[in-house]
Amino acid sequence: MVLPGIICMIIFNFIPIYGLTLAFKSYSVTSTIQDSPWVGMQNFQTILQDKYFWQSVQNTVGISTIKLVIEFFLPIILAIMIFELNWAPFKKVVQTITYLPHFLSWIILGGMLITWMSSNGMLNGLLNMLGFNIHTNHMLNAGGYWSIASLSDVWKEAGWGTILYMATMSKIDPTYYEAAEMDGASKLRQIWSITIPEMSNIIALNLILSVSGLFNSNLDQTLVLMNSQNQPKAEVINSYVYRVGLTQGDFSYATAVGLGVGIISVVLLTITNLVTKKLNDNQSVL
């Protein structure tokens, strides 16, 4: 039963690793990978001098940091709030509403956001009802793009991020809460002293994965929301690699960028794992 999955992994995950040699070659679509001349570290030297690449790095780190701060804590808080609901039908309704955005593509959500953020959209309508006279198209404002990208991604994924926490909390022995209640512990004290410590391993695992993905941005979201006006703040590493590699045909340079980002992600993964291991009595969650 496992064999088909292993075959797919070999074909789509391991064999393509050979293509990383493009990062050290000058590849052209008119030749093969084997026939392309070696250029050593030339592509990486070009990266260090490319101001547009560093601009995409700045945007990626900025957006990902905002997402990390909000999207890491919000699912924990939301999961605890849902878990503490006593009325089962209402709990299912809340879960469904929070999960729903995850199943909608960025084409749909992006179209909704572009409409809402337009000069005559819902956001300006609400602001004008509150007394603000605003007729700006917010999607054309480069200065506000980081907030739009971060908050819209949180809106889409926060509910889905509660699943692991909900599953972990469902396995907590209810006698812990009963004993704490008999000792006079308030609900907040029970959450702080029982719920959160019991979720520590999954929280640490999500932190490691979140930090390691700091340089991996949402390409679908960027391609939908980016336009010529907000591009200086919207261009991220993944969209830059897509544009340089597929649009401009510079596959060697795009591969070098992707390889460099992958190495940095592994370094961040290792460092975060070591830190969480120290905080968890030298026990790793990986």
Automatic annotation (TrEMBL):
It holds the Pfam family BPD_transp_1. InterPro entries: MetI-like, MetI-like_sf, UgpAE/MalFG_permease. Its main location: membrane. The keyword Amino-acid biosynthesis does not apply. CDD domains: TM_PBP2 (cd06261). Keywords: Cell membrane, Membrane, Transmembrane, Transmembrane helix, Transport. It is a multi-pass membrane protein. The chain crosses the membrane at residues 6-24, 61-83, 103-123, 251-275. It is found in: Cell membrane. Residues 57-272 form the ABC transmembrane type-1 domain. Belongs to the binding-protein-dependent transport system permease family. This is ABC transporter permease. It comes from Lapidilactobacillus gannanensis.
